[in-house]
């Protein structure tokens, strides 16, 4: 075993975390050991999403420091993740390796080019055994890329078109996770609802998403099963039926709407109208009445009038989303929106609209959470803090509602407990423990 060390930095979403788990295994197979310290690393990898400018700024901040380190000792720097062509061009001279994560098997060759190393063959991205960062929650990629081409989004350019992972390999990975005591499985993809369709269209025998979800749900054992992210256009009746009848599938759906204005949705190339989105939500709630539904909203998209914005706010209120990943539109070079539309809404207005949406979400969340008072739920514990003579245990319900629980003895992180909800507010609920 070589004594070379690597350190990974992640600037992005769960998809980037999942990329990093596979990259970590690849580096271990090449003889590197993981370190939490940048200072002792021989290789520093950044797995980033350059879709947001803040991530790009953070990368530049880090890179300047590493250039100084390189003057004193050998250091290999690597960049991977969802990086726009435009950013890649600017950053390519600042990193020794740019790795397209789908070509993980080419990593050995890239390292060898950057510095002479022992050469090993690596399996492909989907087949590599990840080094999971959690011992109880696993993010499992089932597909990568996207064919939807929303005009503000860079993913179809950074990750390419949809490529589905082989169904058997997904099921095998999840079987092992369940056997190893994992409690929460989150299936990942830019548009999980269209899983398998690329292979099926090419004449290959593959499961579609509802079939895959059913097989995973029926693997046996007790675990939580979620999936991210769904596109409303591909949310089929068959999928709703599978969710309704699932044993382990959580009553939780993340369904990005982005705007409450048809005009803006058209400009975003979202492929649905506000009316069809509302019908879809009603259908989901009719099938699964207690489901929690979260969404994504972009405020300040090009040309968003006060009327467009009020339509988004009304939609958020009427559909009672209890969680929203709200963002203020920022133009990214290379996207269609950047070519066709001006970024013409002031920062001040974007900030104001952002706060108004989040205030509405806060009100919705409070109303949703208050309805949970008196109910019994299962909670998965994520953290424990000592406070004077008590412990405050922090966890989540199966629908992502945050829970705080006081106890005399600390609860176990990564374990399920039965709790009764006693108080609620917009941030989450307080509960008392019933039993493990
Ligand atoms: S569906 Fe999602 S990943 Fe695909 S282009 Fe639209 S925003 Fe990007």
Written overview of the protein:
- There is one protein chain.
- This protein is α/β, with parallel strands linked by helices and 436 residues long.
- It folds into four domains: 110 residues, Rossmann fold (3-Layer(aba) Sandwich), CATH 3.40.50; 117 residues, Transcription Regulator spoIIAA; 109 residues, Transcription Regulator spoIIAA (2-Layer Sandwich), CATH 3.30.750; 60 residues, Beta Barrel (OB fold (Dihydrolipoamide Acetyltransferase, E2P)), CATH 2.40.50.140.
- Helices cover 35% and strands 24% of the residues.
- It has a five-stranded parallel β-sheet with strand order 2-1-3-4-5, with helices on both faces. A five-stranded mixed β-barrel has the order 14-15-16-18-17.
- The protein is globular and about 60 Å long.
- The model has no long low-confidence stretch (mean pLDDT 91).
- Bound molecules: iron/sulfur cluster.
The biggest beta sheet, please? 5 strands, parallel
Bound molecules: iron/sulfur cluster
Count structural domains: 4
List low-confidence stretches: none
CATH topology-level fold name of the largest domain: Transcription Regulator spoIIAA
Q: Structural class, please?
A: alpha/beta
The number of helical runs is 14
- Helix content, binned percent: 25-40%
Distance between the termini: 42 Å
Under the CATH scheme, which class of the largest domain?
Alpha Beta
């Amino acid at each position: 075993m070589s004594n070379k060390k690597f350190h990974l930095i992640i600037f992005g979403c769960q998809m980037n975390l999942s990329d990093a788990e596979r990259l970590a295994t690849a580096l271990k197979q090449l003889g590197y050991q993981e370190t939490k310290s940048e200072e002792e690393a021989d290789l520093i990898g950044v797995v980033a999403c350059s879709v947001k400018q803040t991530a790009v700024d953070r990368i530049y901040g880090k890179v300047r420091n590493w250039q100084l380190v390189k003057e004193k000792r050998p250091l290999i720097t690597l960049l991977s993740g969802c990086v726009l062509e435009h950013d890649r061009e600017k950053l390519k001279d600042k990193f020794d390796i740019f790795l397209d994560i789908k070509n993980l098997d080419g990593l050995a060759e890239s390292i060898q080019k950057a510095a002479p190393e022992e050469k090993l063959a690596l399996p492909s991205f989907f087949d590599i055994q990840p080094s999971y960062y959690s011992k109880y929650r696993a993010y499992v990629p089932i597909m990568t890329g996207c064919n939807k081409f929303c005009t503000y989004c860079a993913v179809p350019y950074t990750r390419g078109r949809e490529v589905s992972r082989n169904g058997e390999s997904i099921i095998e990975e999840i079987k092992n996770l369940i056997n190893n005591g994992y409690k929460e499985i989150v299936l990942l993809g830019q548009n999980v609802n269209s899983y398998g369709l690329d292979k099926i269209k090419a004449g290959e025998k593959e499961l579609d998403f509802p079939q895959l979800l059913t097989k995973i749900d029926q693997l046996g054992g007790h675990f939580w099963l979620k999936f991210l992210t769904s596109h409303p256009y591909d949310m089929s009746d068959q999928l709703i039926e599978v969710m309704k009848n699932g044993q382990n599938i959580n009553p939780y759906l993340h369904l990005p709407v982005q705007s409450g204005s048809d005009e803006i949705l058209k400009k975003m190339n979202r492929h649905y109208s506000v009316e069809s989105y509302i019908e879809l939500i009603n259908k989901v709630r009719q099938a699964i009445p207690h489901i929690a539904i979260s969404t994504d909203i972009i405020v300040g998209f090009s040309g968003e009038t006060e009327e467009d914005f009020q339509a988004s706010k009304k939609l958020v209120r009427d559909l009672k989303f209890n969680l929203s990943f709200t963002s203020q539109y920022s133009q990214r070079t290379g996207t269609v929106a950047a070519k066709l539309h001006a970024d013409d809404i002031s920062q001040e207005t974007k900030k104001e609209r952002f706060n108004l949406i989040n205030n509405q979400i806060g009100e919705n969340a409070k109303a949703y959470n208050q309805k949970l008072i008196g109910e019994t739920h299962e909670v998965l514990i994520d953290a424990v803090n000592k406070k004077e003579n008590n412990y405050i245990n922090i966890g989540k319900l199966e629908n992502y509602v945050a829970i705080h629980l006081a106890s005399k003895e600390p609860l176990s992180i990564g374990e399920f407990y039965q709790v009764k909800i006693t108080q609620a507010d917009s941030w989450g609920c307080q509960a008392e423990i019933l039993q493990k």
